[in-house]
# Entry
Amino acid sequence: MNNLFILIISATAIVFLLLFVNLIVGDKKPYTNKLSPYECGLMPLGEGRASLNIQYILVAILFIIFDIEVIVLFPYAVTINNIYTYWIMIIFIIILTIGFYFEISQGALKYVDEEV
# Structure
């Protein structure tokens, strides 16, 4: 038999063996703190979800876009060996700069401190 097949079978057998041992040996005494959804020891005071300002999400999206820009530009910066690669990199940076200017002109990066 193949070694990978033996590994998969033995790993599956170990998982089911440990689950069976847990069913036999595990503690089965439920109590109120164990059954409550909050296990930190404090009772909830209000809603579990808090409203989030949309500007935080916009900044996170813009961060991801410019983080991907760095990931795309890094191989070009390391292997820049001809004029074609150079101009592709320049065109990419120009397109991103135009997009960044558009975001600034639309006010996407203005932070307004207001309660939600």
Summary: The two ends are 63 Å apart (CA to CA). The chain has a mean pLDDT of 80.
